[in-house]
Design brief:
The protein is mainly alpha-helical. It has 24 helices and two strands. Helix 3 runs parallel beside helix 15, helix 4 packs across helix 5 and helix 5 runs antiparallel to helix 14.
Length: 552
Amino acid sequence: MTLLAGTLPGLTQSTVPETMLTAAVMLVAALRPPHARLSGTLQLWLVLVCFAAIPALCPLRSLHLVVRFMAAAAFFVLLQDGDDDRRPAMAAVATGAAVFGLAVWMLGLTPRVLAPFGLHHYAAGFLLLHLPLTASLARRYPLWWLGVAAQAVAIAGTRSLAAGVALAVLCLWPLRRRPVWVASIALALVALAVAVPRTRTLIERGEDPSLSVENRIRYLRTGLEMIKVRPFGWGPGSTPLVSAPFRPQVPDVMPQGEGLPHLHNLPMNVAAEMGVLAPIVAAVLFWQAFSPGLLAYAVLSLADYQLDLPALLFALAAVMALAARRREGSLQPVWRVIFLLAAAAAPIQSTCGWGDFESGNYVAAAARLPDLIPVSAAAGSTLLDAGKAAEAIPYLERATRLDRYFTLAHYHLGRARLETGNRTGAVEAFAQGLLAQPVTVFADGWDAEIYRESMRRALGQLGTMPPADDPRTRHRFAELRAFLRANQDAPPAGTYRRVYSEITDADLDHNTSLQVFRRVGAPKYTSGIVVALPKPDFYIPPGIGYLPLKTP
């Protein structure tokens, strides 16, 4: 079930099979109640999740996730009813997922092990939960060691640093009472880490070439700011809808037009969405169902949040059900009623205005999703193209405040201000756009005098932004300055015209702004501008949004 619930096709959005299975689990628990009761801690968790959904920006989206948590709780008590050993079935599913992921990877269809989950972190989380179960079977039935090997190799093949740490914890856990062995293996793992370029750079220079660590620190700071404003939670699934104003904006770390599906940290995400009490209750639940698999998953969860994916949520519930003490007695009547109501609500879904965005109704989408940067920018540029410059300005100003490195928002804001007679404000906006990403040098339709003023303003501001001290950054900074100076007198002439645009809806590997609703589909280009390049592959140096700068 955990594989069929929305992940077998490699997708991560809700599907009809997932909805049907979710409803079926709750109906079975309600109509044929198991001989297991919900613990007080689990009841408190469900109550917190429900109450957090009430003040959410998009209550229907939160309700959809509440239903999933209810289904996971029903799944938990159903698995606790009975004494048959469920480990072989779970180990077989995990081994099948590992073999499938490895096969797809080895065929070159994916850059790392991620199938059938769509993302490598999801694959790692699912397999880490099941690996200790498979190992426990292998001690009695040696053939299962093949499954252990397949799962371990697949986890390594995800190339997730957090998964590697979690896998190391699993290896060391059986030897925890033998410090000499633990120290020896730990030293061997450190030596192995030094041999990997990414971890060697982290150890030697404290820098992550992939920027993954820097971004996760930024996401933690985002979560803390969200909690300060609303300590009792923003509602399940609300992070992508409300997080943009709270993000630290760091050059060379954050992508343009960024939207956060989650905070990449389970405790922080739970605290931000469901209130500061929720992670404490979750920690108690983890303690009551402690197992090696849960320990490994807890380590991984410090670098990712996965409870919005049905396969991971149900897998977590299954592993916890095997380890937790069963509360004897029939399921409480009140929860039977709640499960029935939740089953009826299972088909309810909402994209909270994303449907308007996908259909091109950007103004309506921005009214419901004001803090999604590409949405606000698209609404503003659409109004501007419709001749409503004054109406466009608030949307574009909001987009530039949400992301000061979003080139297209600055450029369209300059156009809107110019059309409304605000020449000074237009020059300032154009200058910011040129600095953020100088592709706008080639934008079609520049006024020559406005262009020169904007260039002078941009170069003046660039002189006040000292770059970081590393040679590569200083070279790229000098390259940007030279590019702007070489084109400061007039826009360069070009004959190769194309559209430069923000991609807001594409597959997970080629998306310039992170997916919010995880819907894999055709790319959607918004807020586009026409550029005229001297040649099709003309090199444009990166702007300040991609350069490490010295902090004041």
